[in-house]
């Protein structure tokens, strides 16, 4: 089954009197359980693609299906609900709320989505999966960079999303901590999670099962990675 499918996805912006073609008729497919790395130089369209796939922006043209649902036809509120329920985000800067402890940060998507069930238990299970139960009551400023990123990963997992979008997830980490985070992402993919990761680092991208290269708003090549195993 396809988690992501796009057909001629296009995004243009007006800058003054000029038209910027940030994304040019991109067609791609990501199957359930794939780990995809999206690479390319600055301005290649990686961030635009991430925003469209994450339902944070809408395309100028073309279509996008998430789990066979045509996202291109949804209203702003419908996209917000889909984003909260079916997409998990991992950011380079972690994006944790400083006044909340680790457990409370992980609970947030469940509270925003008005999910039923035991929110505390589900958040605790997500923290346990990333090995951070002993740090559950600590605030972000009491955690290391790697621990903060693990909290962010737990937050992305807590809603059991169809798709995890990771934007430079090791960009603010030292090489050893970054390697630990990549091993965790590979494990999550092996458990059946679908991950699409934006990175500029070839050694990080090598952990993915497939690497897509972008340039000038287009996917110009794709290759299998043999390092992830």
Structure description:
By secondary structure, the chain is of the alpha/beta class. The protein has one domain: P-loop containing nucleotide triphosphate hydrolases (Rossmann fold), CATH 3.40.50. The protein is built from 7 helices and 10 strands. Strands 6-7-8-3-9-10 form a 6-stranded mixed sheet. Strand 7 (163-167), helix 6 (175-190) and strand 8 form a beta-alpha-beta unit. The protein is globular. The two termini are 23 Å apart. The mean pLDDT is 92.
Can you tell me the CATH topology? Rossmann fold
H/E series:
EEEHEEHEHHHEHEHEE
Number of DSSP-assigned strands:
10
Percent of residues in beta strands? 25-35%
Regions with pLDDT < 50 over 5+ consecutive residues? none
The Cα radius of gyration reads: 17 Å
Note the overall shape: globular
Kindly report the name of the CATH homologous superfamily: P-loop containing nucleotide triphosphate hydrolases
Q: What's the average pLDDT?
A: 92
List the helices and strands and how they pair.
Layout: E1 2-15, E2 18-31, E3 35-39, H1 46-53, E4 61-66, E5 69-70, H2 76-86, E6 87-91, H3 102-112, H4 119-129, H5 145-157, E7 163-167, H6 175-190, E8 195-198, H7 202-205, E9 210-215, E10 218-224
Parallel strand pairs: 3-8, 3-9, 6-7, 7-8
Antiparallel strand pairs: 1-2, 1-4, 4-5, 9-10
Helix pairs in contact: 3-4, 3-5, 4-5, 5-6
Brief rundown of the structure:
The chain has 229 residues and is α/β, with parallel strands linked by helices. The protein is built from seven helices and ten strands.
